[in-house]
Structures
1.
Amino acid sequence: MSSLALDRVETPSQDTRRWVLENGQSDEAVNRIVSAPLLQRHKWTWRTWWIAFAVSGAMTVMMIVSASWLLIRGVGVWGNNTTVVWGFGIANYVWWIGIGNAGTLISSMLLLMRQHWRASINRFAEAMTLFAASIAGLFPILHLGRPLYFYWLTPYPNTMLLWPQWRSALIWDFWAILSYLLFSIVFWYVGLIPDLATLRDRARSALPRKIYGAFALGWRGSARHWHFYEVYHKAMAALAVPLVVSLHSVVGLDFAASLMPGWAETIFPPYFVVGAMYSGFAMVVVLAALVRWGFRMQPIITVNHFDVMAKVMLMASIVMGLSYATEWFDAWYGGDHAERSMLTFMFSGSYSPIYFIMLFCNVLAPQAFWLAAARRSVAAVFVIAVIINVGMWLERLLIILNTLSHTHLPSMRHLFFPTIWDWTLLFGSLGFFAFMFLIFVRLVPSVSMHEVRHILHEGERP
Amino acid sequence: MIVLLAEFTRPEALMRAARQAQDAGDKVLDAFTPFPIAGMAELLGARSTRLRAVMFAGGIAIALGAFATEYFSAMLDYPINSGGRPLNSWPAFMMFPFAIGIFAAAVSGFIALMAETGLPRLHHPLFAVEGFERASQSRFLLAIAVLHSETGTADAEKRLRNAGALSVREAEP
């Protein structure tokens, strides 16, 4: 028995090296691959980048126009009405904050669980978090009837002698998003410092060297510094997990703390957290495929990465399916008339086709990941990830539309029809996200070089 | 005292050389590496850090401050009876101190990290040493102080080369 069993025991070194292809398995190769887009720009024509930049720039302008029109004319330009008071604005907010949740969650959770493959994806996942969370923060403000007073959420000495209502879930939300966004910036920047030092030392011309050098803070890679750095980074990861979980739980509480049928459910906070991780992972996969293709990072972002990420999405899709089923069961088993009527409306009301599409996108489509062939095909994983993102947006939308369109008072019931300004703001925000991400990949290493170098040597002992 | 800076291509070689130097009575000053090397900080006798304690203290302090704000506003400055709820609804007040406390812990930790490492420090004599720029990329540098005479330096250099050093340079102490 012994010889067979021993053969199967992989040394830690082989185990972590399998996350990098052979042609990337040296420190220098990793540095070269990751820093090439930043320091050797002539290797690319950048044509696709410029096209994407122009398109996303135009969409950003569209977002600005749409938001300006909203600010000039008020929320009446949206499809919101006196019954459906939360339309696309809040759905977009919940969707974006879900994506914004995932980067830091993935990065910190995988770090604490010693999942070495995170090294190839955590940097751009964290960047995704920053951009998505910033965009998410805009929507609640835009959706306010009087956005210019949004700062009333903060406790500050004012001539009205008023204070925020601390019992309100919206106040919790404000602090959770703000703290999370600022925390994520610190987490991301600290992870970046050693890589900025690498870029400083590799840069041939003076200006990049000075800029990267200034942001690297004079990092020398001293063993003493690494020691403190690791202590801090791990402590940050341990703090990030409860912060992220609380953030999206609070988003769930925005709904659950009400008395509306379909919202007042205790399952909402965990269900929102899983949904956030799910849509965020799907977005990470989309970005991973693009970064890998655009900057020839196949040696570092491998098919194995897509394989494991597909497994995580499969797991999350099952949890989501279970959450939906729990909602249905609760509504039926609880016996409350409003809840049961709401359930009937979900499956047979005016929005039911969207609900079935949503179930297909979130629960059915990812079941393809049971097949290894689907998990190991980058194209298949990419397509299903896009489907999941669409499905998760529909889910966020329906949570709002179903409940608000089917309130307790039948005479108040109304449907929601989006206007052109709803759509321009949604797609404009997507464009703005792409715009910021394109700038990011051109200025900052999109993969954490020091962490990939580390896993190449993991398990080596003198 | 003479400081030698030896360049290695692999972390194991660096660790071996560091141990040998220590056994021979030289002082291992520091190592400069592209990623953290397990065991190196212990070998250098890096002191245990109070970084996490600072993070805890900073986080708790700001969280308490946040709760004090809530308590002051809801209990003392503007008590308002909202549906008969207790004025000090502390469970509902926890989110603000919690979130801001975690952010404060992160910032305190960052400040402590800068204090412990002495960064930011954009200029350092080591940056002038030829080949030092590779320590952030793919080379592993070991700095040792030879405390003895001229022959000691030659011996130390020989030991480092035997351990696999590509080059050994003298640096400013």
2.
Amino acid sequence: MSPTPAKPGGTRIPSRRTVLRGAFTAAVVTGTAGALFPLLDRDPAATARPAPAPGPGAGSGSRATAEEFAEMYRGREIWGTATVVPAGAPADDRVAVAAEPVTEIRIDGRPLHVMRRADGTYLSDVRHYESYPTLLETARAAVDELGTARLAPPAAHHM
Amino acid sequence: MYTRKNQRDLTRTEKRRLIDAILKLKRSGRYDDFVVMHREYYVMDTERRPRPAHMTSSFFPWHRQYLLEFEKALQRVDAGVSVPYWDWTQDNRPTSSLWAEDFLGGNGRSGDRRVTTGPFAYAAGNWSVGRGVTDEHYLTRNFGRPGSDPVSLPTKNDLARALKDPVYDTAPWNSVCTEGFRNRVEGWGIRGVRTVGLHNRVHQWVGGPMAGAASPEDPVFWLHHSFIDLLWDRWRKAHPKSAYRPGRKPASPGPDRDYVFGLDDAMPPWRVTPRKLLDHSKVYRYA
């Protein structure tokens, strides 16, 4: 059940699906998710790139990129990554991170705060009452909601 | 004892007094404290900490107390005001008197979606937003978010379906419960089951801050939640034998139950239990 961690040098890189299967396993074990649906039922329009090789110091808990994109959407530059720590990390750590992968979205360079629901879908500070299966959809929905507005600069982002 | 009225039944004077009290609260800085508080207690159901406000059983009692606190703050400004409710199944058009010049002002203009009418228009000089989400300081709205992914307000039928559910809430007491009155009204979309509904859908429909993490920045928030609060009353009346769930905490609660507030669990920040909030008949009533 455990996905293969990315090897330094990137010879064997876990597919996004493999990594996500690992995340689901952890979620089932902890019972944080009451109802599970496929996290990604289709590929995002942006090409998912291979996970970067872990840097020095990445031990048993090496990270894998689950999703990565960079594109122009309605004149806005959107960028995002989701990284998941696959099985192999210490049990507690693995469960915590698998329940909430490290996610980052930027719109025109400014960070958008992203959260995750128990079914694995994402929501953001801008669209806070609706969630999306992928970070890319989350970012595009935030651009739709923002209209011509810009995100607050990072300093003001967290109150 | 005071009365919360349907917003469509407010007199001109009642509207003016409510708006004046809200503007005074804004000027004092207290209004923005409420915005921050909502954001602080909006905890996700993937987080490993207590979540009293959203994606949780105590969605109704937490917001009941939150509204009571806001109302108390308003009443310190003007003892004669209360928070009216917006029945969005009835007043479901942008031309409703709710959105008139003498009340909440209307939809955002095209382009930057800025609200330019009513007391909360930026140019009037009394209202600014931007508590950490966007860079803009003017209030925006985008009714129905026309375009590729439009939303409509919930209908009477949508509401009737939720009120019919005899169970208050079900395990795992979060945003993915397919059964139970609470999540039907809170309205989380569940893939393969149902789309975004009722409470959440109204936030989407208004758009601007209402759709985001600082939703109380648009004063319609309070009128929306006053109606949500009334729905809890309607449901209790329709199902007198149904109880708030979950009840007593089991000796060894599983992870599902750990961060959820049962009937006798004190909710932050007020340390009030859902049980204390079931009956509000000594404090206010709905007309």
